[in-house]
Amino acid sequence: MILSRLRLENFKKYSAKTIEFGEGLIGIIGKNGSGKSTIFEAIFFALYGELRSKGYKDIVKNSNADAKDAVVVELEFEFDAATYRVVREFRGKAMSANAKLYKNEELITSGAKEVTSSITSLTKMSKDAFVNTLFASQKELTSLSTLKNEDRKKMIRRLLGLEKIDFVERELIEKSRELKREIEAFKEVLLGEAEIKQKEEQIKQNIASKEALVKDEKSKTEYLDALKTKEKEIKKELGVFAETKEKKQKLASQLELTKNSKNSELLNQVKLNAEFHELEDKQEKLESLKPAAKEYLSLQQQLKEQEKLREFFLKKEGLQKEQVQLREQYTKSRSDIGALEKACEGYDEFVLNAKNLEINIAVLQESVKTKQTIENELKAEIASELKQIDITNAKIAKLKELGNEGACPTCTRPLLEEYDNVVNSLVGTVNETHQKKIDEYKKQLTNVETQKSAFETEKKQKEKEFSEIVSSVKIIESKLKDLKAAQEHFALVEQKGLKNKQELKELEAYSYDEKAHEKIRSDFASLEPKYKLYVSHETELKRLPVVKADLALVSKRIEDLREQYKKKEAEFNLVIYDEEKHKAKLAEHDELLKAIDAKTALLMEIKVKVAKIEGEIKNIEASLNNNEAQKKKVQSKKDDLLDYEKIKASLTEFKTRLNAKIAPRISEIASEMYARITKGKYQHIEVSNDFDFFIYDEGKKYPIERFSGGEIDLANLVLRIAISKTLTELSGASSIGFLAFDEVFGSQDESRRMEILEAFHTIKEQYRQIFLISHEMEIKEMFERVVEL
């Protein structure tokens, strides 16, 4: 396998990066944190779909990429003269994985798992083998010589994949111990030979006891079957007896029923005959009552007519009385209407006067308000003038207090000789101006108050007159309502009188004789008992045809029942039933049942014993069978233990052979390279089966720790390359043509770095590509190709 080109999109720290690798000694050069190791993480991810650390989905995407951006890793490589291209990507928020593998630009497989499987099959290397074989770090190189023997042994065995064999071997040992413990545990529960023989003898004894019981059961069963057969015969005879008895009882019951039915019909015949004769008597009486019934119905009609005439008569009397009352009401209503009409005269005049008074009162009220306003204004003027007088008097008092040296209250200059003039002027202003105004205002105020008082007096008089007129109007309005009601009542009385007059005229056509009405009523009452008797007989006689028909039907049924009774009696006499024999047979049957129950109980006891013996036999057989099954399990576990011991022995032998083959092969490869690098100074490096390292110097073997730091570094390098080549050979991946070393220079000085680079130049013909990852910028001229990051 030769790596050709790597393309990254949004992978870890790379937003977009394409690298052409080329061949030879290739330097991956860059400062710490520049993404050197990421290159080989991407290669590993492209081939196997994983990073060396878990949770790769959370860290694989570039932090500057958008959520919708895909993570893409594309690797081109050559393998067995063919060009391959593998593309892996994650898309979406869920980072869904997808992968494709092309051979010579033709798609050969797709899907993350499918591509990984194809790569593994192609390279013949698992992901762990790929990492351990083709990648090495400074830590691994220095560990080869610096670690303790046991730790170094573990590391190399891990690189070679031998720890898996160790794990299988430990599992085999643990499984063998577990099987031995289980086999020992089974010995505790398995039966001994003496116990097995005892249980087999017990089974034989139980079988003999069971056979004896079965033989006894058979004889008792035969006897019981004979008893049951006899019981069935007796039961059959009892059935005949019971059937005959039941038939006899049924016929006796039918005879009794027929006899009772005949007696019931005879009684019914007697009742019907009595009723028939009674009805014939009533028919004769009905004929004699016919004239009275006819007269009763006639009087009933006459009575209805008299009741109607009496009703008309009473109505006429009522109307006449009502007319007298209506005439009185008519006269009174006319009189009341006249009086009310007279009392309501002058209503319109009162209303008009009231309205005029209301207007006059409103005018007077307005006049009073006007005078009140003028009065208020005059009082305000007087108050204002009084205030001015008070102010002027205060000034005069102030001037008198200051004397003639005081300041003029108007211009504020000293008064001096003008003092008296100013004081006299102010006094004149009070007396001549303000007081005159006050006197004038008071005269006007007196006139206004007199006028206001006159208006208020007139207003009160008008209000009194208005109140009296309003009272009169209300009285007349009340009487007007009474007048309207009286007129409406008068109209009703007049209308009712005319209606009654018309009805009286119509009732004049009817006349009513109270004596004649009383006589008809008396005659009707005397005939009523005879009529009721007539109606009762007439109703009862409706049953006469029915009674005749019932008599004929009853007579026929009596005859039929007589014939039926004779037949049943003859049939009853023909049935022969012996009750004594029946009782004797029942007693015999009871005794037989007791014997059957006794024998059945004995048989059940025998069956219980047989079942108990069979249960014991089954338990013993189950114990023996279980013992046999446990023996088979023990044997199976012994066979498994033998197989594990054989596998463990084979694995030990395989490990011995593998160790014998691996250590010499590592020694061979390492010795050849070390001799070439040291230009023949050291001919051989020995690797023991415990992976201890020795260098031969002038034919003598020395531990690796004896030599200088530079020699040890070179030894570690060739040993690590030898381990990789050995791993490649073991896995069958002979077409892998590159190695990668991460920071193998460590902290060595310049001379030792140059020695290591010379060593790589010396062995480069064995690999088409050797990648060296380093942060040492000054050594980049030593590489045939440089990828600078």
TrEMBL record:
GO BP field: double-strand break repair
UniProt keyword list: Coiled coil
Lineage: superkingdom: Bacteria
Gene Ontology MF: a single term: ATP hydrolysis activity
Statement: the UniProt record of this protein carries the keyword Coiled coil: yes
InterPro entries found in the cross-reference section: P-loop_NTPase (IPR027417), Rad50/SbcC_AAA (IPR038729)
Domain Rad50/SbcC-type AAA: 5-206
Listed SUPFAM superfamilies: P-loop containing nucleoside triphosphate hydrolases (SSF52540), Rad50 coiled-coil Zn hook (SSF75712)
Sections of the chain in a coiled coil: 431-465, 603-637
PANTHER family noted in UniProt: ABC TRANSPORTER ABCH.3
Protein name: SMC family ATPase
